Amino acid sequence: MCSNKYKPNDPKTKLFYLKQLFIAINVILSTISTKSDALDASTGKITFPNGKTIDVIIARGSAAQTRGLSGVKANEFPQNSGMLFIYNAWGMKTFWMPDTYFNLDIIFLDPDLKIIYIEKNMVAHPGMENTKPISYTKSTYSFHVLEVRADANLTSTLKIGDQLIWVGTQLFSKKN
Fold first, then answer.
1. N or C: which end of the chain has fewer CB within 10 A?
2. Which long-range contacts (CB under 8 A, 24 or more apart) does 21-27 make?
């Protein structure tokens, strides 16, 4: 007779299978989250009022939005680039700068990409150590948010009320 026989009423057996089920569920959920983040990492173009067009990476979904530009070095993010954070609703939005390697201008937008507020020259915070305070934007009631490199000088002529233009097919829905 084998001593490793399955014992359905044994608490150790139940605990073992419960742990296996928990592990399997976590693996499945992490796979689903990774796949949806990959789908959310699309790109597009935005034109500024002065006619300058930049390439943007779309950050949609909590994982992509939490990660943002953290860990990205300046040589990996050209000056004619931005990251557009797409949301599904109006709300108070505050951005911060952990593990960033270049200063950013952060543009808060309405659903039609009209500028509500611009936080200029947010100071980078390389790494995650707490050797100096991490910069935070002012909390701003907005719909979408666009981050661009501060040294690109893209925001020098922008003002509240200016309209940015999405170039190409409609990628996100506009909700009021």
1. N
2. none
Q: How far is CA 60 from CA 89, 100, 114, in A?
A: 12, 19, 19
List own/partner pairs for 154-160 with CB under 8 A and 24 or more apart.
154/48, 154/52, 154/54, 154/82, 154/105, 155/105, 155/107, 155/118, 155/120, 157/49, 157/50, 158/48, 158/49, 158/107, 158/115, 158/118, 159/115, 160/115, 160/116, 160/117, 160/118
Helix (H, G, I), strand (E, B) or coil at 21: helix
Residue pair 56/107 in contact (Cβ under 8 Å)? The answer is: no
7: tokens are 């014992």
| pLDDT tens, residue by residue, 23-59 | 544 444 443 433 334 334 589 999 999 999 999 999 9
What fold, for 41-167? Jelly Rolls (2.60.120)
